[in-house]
Design goal:
48% strand, single chain, 6-stranded mixed beta sheet
């Protein structure tokens, strides 16, 4: 069974930065469109960034110009670099395939607060 392990979250002040990592085991991310999602309390999970096998990226409007998704196929790891963080970015962040998602991991909590 594919496992997703997200890490790198934490408490950061507004304007700060974080780098999230997602290690995927028992599958190969290079074959799939991969994405970072987030879910805030009381809200639906939303896609914030995606990356294709050919490294084409796409971002939700809320993430454009602040977040960067990347991947290392050799390490089977997807990253999300987040800059200029805002309180509204507070959420649990998850990674997964865009289509036919695997079982979701536990995510990593990002809290933006002064």
């Amino acid at each position: 069974q594919v496992q997703l392990v997200e890490s790198g979250g934490g408490l950061v002040e507004p304007g700060g930065s974080l780098r999230l990592s997602c290690v995927v085991s028992k599958s190969t991310i290079g074959f799939y469109d991969m994405g970072w999602y987030r879910q805030a309390p009381g809200k639906q999970r939303e896609l914030v960034a995606s990356i294709t096998p050919s490294y084409k990226t796409n971002y939700a409007d809320a993430a454009k110009d602040r977040f960067t998704i990347s991947k290392d196929n050799a390490k089977n790891t997807v990253y999300l670099y987040m800059n200029s963080l805002k309180p509204e970015d507070t959420a649990t962040y998850y990674c997964n395939r865009i289509s036919n998602s695997w079982l979701w991991g536990q995510g990593t909590q990002v809290t933006v607060s002064s």
